[in-house]
Structure formats: structure tokens, C-alpha cells
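Quick start: what a row looks like.
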Amino acid sequence: MEGEAATQRNLDLVSTALVAYASKQEALPCPAVGSAATGIAASTGPSSCDATAGVVPWSTLGISVDTATDGWGRLISYRVASGANGLTRARGASLVDCNSNPHPAIANNAAVANLSSSYLCQGDRTKPDEHGNPPAAFNTATTTGARTTLLIQGDGADKLYVAFALISHGPTGYGGVMRDGTAVLGDLAATGREATNATRTGNTFFGSERTVDVPPTAVSHFDDVIRYMTLAELVGKAGLGARDWGASASLPLATAGSSTFNRATVEAAVGVAVNNNTFDQSLTFGAGGSAVSVQAFGSSARDISFTEGARGSGIGTIGGGSTSATNATVNSASDEFLRFNTAIARSLGITLVDFGTSGGATRFERVRFTFYLSGTQVGSQIIKAACQNRNPAIPTNPAEVNYPGSANFSLSPGGNFNRVDVEPITTTSGDSESAILVGSFRVCTSLITTAECISPTRNIDEPDNLNDCP
């Protein structure tokens, strides 16, 4: 009982010393070599930290050898995942550079946003640089590196993502090391839980479900006393948790291209004032890797239009040198469509303007989306219908008085794409034309889900997102 009490007390003290070391060094120390009996960590270099029979490095931790000894006079073994991906690598136990405040759209995507147990940072969760830009490796899951951790078995459910384990080899001491560096092998069975804890051939160890009613030489004998701490616990106690580095860098990484087609953006792309007709068949919005180029097509040559419609502004198609607003929509009667070329993306958020009913309250306009990757169609075409009346005389929903005639969609063809054709088709009744404007456009990478890829104007002047259409 005295040996047990002394062991538990020293396991507490060593655990506290390891937390203090991690707090200062942002990593865990390499084990000391038991046979050396110096208490000095075997190596400070992460790639060479491979002490296979390591004990607590008491000298490196600044504690006494007495503290690093169990209640039966043997050194406490210390196990930690080492090597290039272990917690002994430089800053290997730190989440300080992880961003606890990414853009809300990305924060809702657990697949990327979590500060996980096995990865210290994931994807968008690394802090931006001094200019608010993401670091070069921002998009990769190994921005700060996947960490190898330990697995503890035998305490009920397996304990995953363990940062370190401290092992007293119990009253028999089999597998332990004396203070002078002498190994205590005795009649340790070649297999079994005690042998696993003693030899450390991997990163899996066994907990404290003891079996002492059999001889110490039996494979099933187990009297080790083990103490461990998960990575999450270590980071929390050491004050190495994620920081709020701001959300400014997160959204651009999820966006492969984005534009709101208002007068300012269109005239900036054209270079002159626009009166319904840009007199350009192709325009580019934005610059660099997030630029969006738009082309106009129809049964005959078409220019890109910009007009301020009844329910908002947007771009469309126009032909014949016309500057009439009535000719500035993308119209199914003339086989017109807009083609958007972007960086490689996974999903689309788009707002269509002047898109609702046509020729009757039950005739809803429709649009067809076709996605391509380098000229090859991706997935099936997606057809969507309006869900608001364009100009309801007696609205079924009072909110429609102010917000009819536009629609928001978030779509994905199920694979990567870099081109989208947006083409109106006949209404749901099949006997009337559809005519639309594109109000805003955004394509997103796989960093966020399709539902989170929303158009830039979706949340502007639309209470409760009434224009979100299925």
C-alpha cells in the first residue's frame, strides 16, 4: 500500500512537470535512456528522438530522481510518440498558431474547421500573416502537421490521442529499470501486456486493469500502474490552446471566384459607363486566381448586358447594338445563356434577379446549370425553378411585397468544375419563356459544404433569406 501511494504521488508530480515543460517549450521532451541513469533526454532533435526503453528525463525536467522513481524503487518509464510527426518535434504540442475564429461558413464545417485530436490545426484554422493573408500551406490538412499520438488499451474503451504515458512496472517491477540503470527483466513473459509496456515496440500500451492472481511469469499477469494524458488535456493545462487570430483569411480560401454584378463592378470591368449594353461579349471580374470571366451566347451574337431591373440589378445578354433595358435579360426564347469560367471549384452560390413567375401565377421561370471541368461535363445538368412570385398582386406571404422576383441557389455537380453555363429554359408550365439576370456569383472550394457556399448578396436586404429556393 505504501508503494502504491508513493507511486501515485510521483506520477502526479511527473505529470505536472511534463505539463510545465510543454508550456515553456511547446513540445514534450524525449525520454531518457534508462541504462544511462543520467535523467537527460536522449535527444533534443525530433527526428532522432527514439529512446525505445525510455524513462522519465528527470534532469531535463528539473525534478529529482526520487520524484522520477516509483514506490518500489524503480524508475518510472515514460512513453511519448516521437519522430518527425511526434509531440517531441519543435512546437509539436502547441495549438497557439491555430485559429479559433475562422469565417463562420467554414466554422460550421466540422470536416475542416475542427481543431482535431490528431491534427493540431486543420486547413483554414492557421493564423493569417501580418497582412491578414493565409500562409502558403494554408489549405492543407498538415499546415502544422499531423501528430502521432499514443493509444491506451485496457481501461474500458480504448483511449485515443494520448500525448504521453507514465508507467510504473508495479510490485514485480518486470520490464522496469533500477536507478543505477540495471534492467529488471526477471521472468518477464515474452508476450502479454507487461511485455508490451516494457519493450515499446509501437505506440500502443496497456492501462491499469490488473491481473495479479496468476504467477508473475504468466502471460496474463499484469501489475503495472499507468498514468496518461490526452493531447487535448495537455494543450489545455499547458496554455497552448488555439487563439482568436481573426476570420479575415478564411473566406478567400474557400472562394475560388466571386462577384456582385452591380453598376460599380460592371463599369470597373468595362472601363466606361454602361447603359444596358457593355458592347463586350466577354468580361473579367476580379483578378488573379479568384477572377471570374463571363461570356454571352445566344442564337446570334450577344454582348453582356447590365441593367437595373424591377427587382434588382444584374448582368444578362443583349444583341444587335441595343441599349434597351427590355432586351437586357438572358432569355430562353433566343437560346441565350451566360458562361462563367473560374478557378477549380466544388460548389456554386448564385442569386438570380427578376426571376419568378412569367405569364401567370403558376408559371414559374426555370434555369438550367451545366458544369464542366476543362471542357468535360461534370455530373448531370441541374434544373431549378423560381420560388417567389415576380410581382404578386395579392401575395400569399406578406414578405413577398418587398422581396419577390429573385432566387438564391447553392449547388454542386458532385465533382470539381471550372466552368458553369447558366441558361434559362421554359417555365414550369412548359409554354412560356424565362428571362433572368444574374445578380451575384460565387464558386467555392471543398473547404466548405455546398450549403455554406452562398452568393455574395444572399444576406443583403433579405430577412430570413426568403428567396432561398430548393
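That is the whole record. The chain has two domains: 2-238, 250-465. Confidence is low (pLDDT under 50) at residues 103-114, 133-144, 392-403.
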